[in-house]
Design brief:
The complex is a heterodimer.
Chain A: H1 19-28, H2 33-48, H3 69-72, H4 88-91, E1 101-106, E2 109-115, H5 117-121, E3 125-128, H6 129-135, H7 137-140, H8 155-163, E4 166-172, E5 182-188, E6 193-194, E7 196-202, E8 207-216, E9 223-233, E10 238-246, E11 251-261, E12 266-273, E13 278-287, E14 293-302, E15 307-316, E16 322-331, E17 336-345, E18 352-362, E19 368-372, E20 375-376, E21 382-392, H9 395-402, H10 408-424, H11 430-445
Parallel strand pairs in A: 1-5, 4-7, 5-8, 6-9, 7-9, 8-10, 9-11, 10-12, 11-13, 12-14, 13-15, 14-16, 15-17, 16-18, 17-19, 17-20, 18-21
Antiparallel strand pairs in A: 1-2, 3-4
Helix pairs in contact in A: 1-2, 2-8, 9-10, 10-11
Chain B: E1 4-14, E2 17-28, E3 32-36, H1 43-50, E4 57-65, E5 68-69, H2 75-80, E6 83-86, E7 93-97, H3 98-113, H4 122-135, E8 146-147, H5 153-167, E9 171-175, H6 183-196, E10 202-207, E11 220-225, E12 228-233, H7 235-244, H8 247-253
Parallel strand pairs in B: 3-10, 3-11, 6-9, 9-10
Antiparallel strand pairs in B: 1-2, 1-4, 4-5, 7-8, 11-12
Helix pairs in contact in B: 3-5, 5-6
The chains are: A alpha/beta, B alpha/beta.
Chain lengths: ~450, ~250
């Protein structure tokens, strides 16, 4: 066993990338000129932006300076690991019995790819992002980091735009229904940096369901996941999107995730945060079209020394738009969670209905949870409300269950389970619910370290 | 040999304030006792302390159940030993359905008795639950509702009696099960209790009013006053209280 020397005092606070890394990365992938140029342009943006710090309002509660970039910035490269290294439960279909497609990345490399012929016949494209950039330039070029997540919105967004390593691309043409769900797995077997991208385009009056599983095997060295998710939901389209994160406990995630929703369209977005050491995620819904509907359901459970900072926005850019957000989380041991939510509207966007609620369950005196709701509404004929609640595991219900013969650990589990039920009921996929429940139960029963 | 709950000189405090001051009471399987008394006399304290509610501190005395020291047992062990309390104010547990809760309660019993038990099968559980619900005139949709969450007063009390039926208690304590019930709900609840009544079950009915005792006829009636049982007698004692109120008790024992 190797004993590591940790150099805390002079830990670098920025990754050590240079423009040469961007060029090398692009060249190694044989990328088209436009993509290489867009990466280089993003690199300039990256160089101009400061690293976020505690003096930035949205980073005030999230100190990531303990990240060891000398470990975390090494790009994860494939080392021969195959599909077999991905635990079976991570690649099982979680939605329905059958999958319309399965795309599995191990260490950034595709180890498995399948798509149902009926989806191909319908004109649906489900492939990795590099291939899509080469083969479907007309679809990717004008949508990749130009509409939803922009390089200029933050240091990590810019770094992602310059250096993204792999990703998945889903395109559902107008008036097409992808009956079977699409499943993407991103799994890393060794530590380092990965910059994964999800680009989903569901055109007018089209429909799709997609599930993304992020996970990595345990490691001692630090990892960084600098990700972006872009969901473009066309007019009258329907997208159900589920993303479950279960990184190892030495991973730092910095991600920007944004959906744009067109007229009369529906987005049902479900996120589950279980793993990672520190997660800073921006999750934003832009309701662009009149009558559009955006729903976000967030599950999080932090234990040990985890820190989750989830920053959500529901932006009403059109009248008659409806947003509904519910985040439910728990924290035990010395974990910290932050949820900051904002409902925004452009001026004069009448008849909008925005709702956000954050429900927090503190399972230890040393854990800390912050819930900061916010409204910025510049219209008068609106219905917007928000709530943040905090509670602990109460003795009364536990005693009640015990008085019926149920042992304390089970009784406590049932009460915590009950707390999350309201959220789980919003998830229409039984096995996704089971996955979250299992993760939760492991965390409740398991010790921190 | 039937089960016996024997309370010997029990002293209990809440936040250092003495509430029970030497209670003696013995209830045998198959017997029905009523415990009456004015508000604040300590009746509900006695009920809660029997199940080990954490808000109550036992400062003296003993409680023996099935030959074991009850006060040394956790609430779940007391329940599995055959003790049941129908709460006066059952707590709502959002997110936990009545059916899941009852199945877990049954499985906990089966697993405690036999660690290899796989618990009750779902079809068997459903059949059993339906028959018990029918017997208490409860709509089957109750099973899918969150435990006591949004239940009316009558629904809560019926759900308590349902649990008593499902868990097959040997000694059951009904803590003011009649309070707040209209006459129809009271009749249904009382009929439920009467159907469960028998040589296998000892019952302690705690009540402020005599009304419920018209339906659940006790063999023994006790009166609690200022933390002690000050009068004991037969069913006629309840009728006497109904006619004369508690003033004579106060005068006699204050």
């Amino acid at each position: 066993m190797v004993v590591r020397q940790r150099r805390r005092s002079n830990t670098p606070t920025t990754p050590s990338y240079t423009i040469e890394d961007v060029k090398a990365l692009s060249a190694a992938r044989g990328e088209p000129q436009w993509l290489r140029e867009s990466r280089l342009a993003a690199w300039e943006v990256y160089e101009d932006l400061p690293m976020p710090s505690l003096s930035d309002e949205d980073w005030r509660r999230t100190d990531y300076r303990h990240i060891r970039w000398e470990e975390a910035d090494k790009l994860v490269t494939p080392n021969g690991a195959t599909l077999d290294t991905v635990p079976v439960n991570r690649r099982e279909p979680l939605i329905g019995e059958q999958q319309g497609g399965l795309l599995v990345f191990v260490d950034g490399k595709i180890v498995h790819y399948e798509i149902a012929q009926e989806l191909v016949d319908a004109g649906i494209i489900f492939t990795d992002l590099s291939t899509a950039c080469r083969e479907h330039e007309e679809l990717v070029r004008y949508n990749l980091m130009t509409k939803a997540v922009l390089p200029g919105e933050g240091k990590f967004a810019a770094l992602h735009a310059a250096m993204w390593t792999h990703g998945a691309f889903l395109y559902v043409p107008a008036n097409t229904v992808a009956e079977l769900p699409l499943h993407v797995v991103m799994y890393n077997t060794h530590p380092g940096a990965s910059l994964g991208h999800m680009l989903v385009i569901v055109e007018e009056n089209a429909q799709a369901t997609m599930l993304v599983d992020y996970a990595s095997s345990d490691a001692q060295d630090h990892s960084a996941y600098i990700g972006a998710t872009e969901l473009l939901v066309g007019d009258a389209a329907n997208l159900r999107y589920v993303a479950l994160q279960d990184w190892n406990r030495e991973t730092f995630e910095f991600s920007h995730q944004r959906a744009r929703v067109g007229r009369d369209a529906n987005l049902d977005w479900i996120v589950g945060n279980m793993g990672g050491r520190l997660v800073k995620a921006y999750l934003e819904i832009e309701l662009d079209g009149k009558g559009s509907n955006g729903r976000m359901s967030g599950f999080f459970f932090a234990d040990g020394e985890q820190l989750f900072d989830l920053d959500t926005q529901q932006v009403h850019n059109a009248p008659l738009t409806v947003s509904d957000l519910l985040f439910k989380g728990a924290a035990k041991d010395t974990a910290r969670t932050v949820w900051q939510g904002m409902i925004k509207s452009l001026p004069n966007m009448q008849k909008i209905d925005g709702y956000q609620a954050s429900r927090n369950l503190l399972l230890s005196e040393d854990a800390r949870m912050d819930g900061i709701p916010g409204l910025e509404i510049e219209a008068d004929d609106v219905k917007c409300s928000h709530a943040a609640t905090f509670g602990t595991l109460e003795e009364e219900p536990v005693f009640y269950l015990m008085s019926r013969g149920i042992e304390r650990p089970t009784a406590e589990l049932m009460v915590i389970d009950g707390f999350f039920d309201e959220l789980l009921q919003r998830i229409p996929f039984e096995r996704v619910r089971e996955r979250l429940q299992a993760a939760m139960e492991t965390k409740i029963v398991g010790s921190a370290n | 040999m039937g089960s016996v709950l024997e309370i010997r000189n029990l002293h209990v405090s809440v936040e250092d304030k003495p509430i029970l001051r030497g209670v003696n009471l013995t209830i045998k399987q198959g017997e029905v006792h009523a415990l009456m008394g004015p508000n604040g006399s300590g009746k509900s304290t006695l009920a809660n302390v029997m199940l080990g509610h954490p808000a109550y501190q036992v400062t003296g005395g003993q409680v023996i159940f099935e030959g074991q020291d009850l006060l040394e047992m956790e609430a779940d062990e007391r329940s599995r030993a055959g003790l049941f309390l129908a709460f006066q104010y059952p707590v709502a547990i959002p997110g936990v359905t009545l059916a899941n809760f009852l199945r877990q309660a049954i499985n906990s019993r089966m697993k405690a008795a036999d660690p290899n038990s796989k618990g009750i099968s779902i079809p068997e559980f459903r059949r059993m639950l339906k028959s018990k619900m029918d017997f208490l005139q409860m709509d089957h949709s109750f099973a899918g509702r969150y435990l006591n969450d949004g239940f009316s007063g009558g629904e809560k009390k019926r759900a308590e009696i349902l649990q008593m039926a499902v868990l097959q208690a040997r000694i059951a304590i009904l803590d003011e099960t009649d309070s707040g019930l209209d006459i129809d709900a009271l009749r249904i609840v009382a009929e439920g209790v009467n159907k469960l009544r028998g040589p296998e079950m000892g019952i302690l009915v705690i009540t402020h009013y005599q009304r419920i005792l018209n339906y659940i006829k006790p063999e023994f009636v006790h009166v609690m006053f200022e933390g002690q049982i000050v009068e004991s007698g037969g069913a006629d004692l309840a009728l006497h209280l109904e006619e004369n109120g508690y003033d004579w008790v106060r005068e006699k024992h204050a």
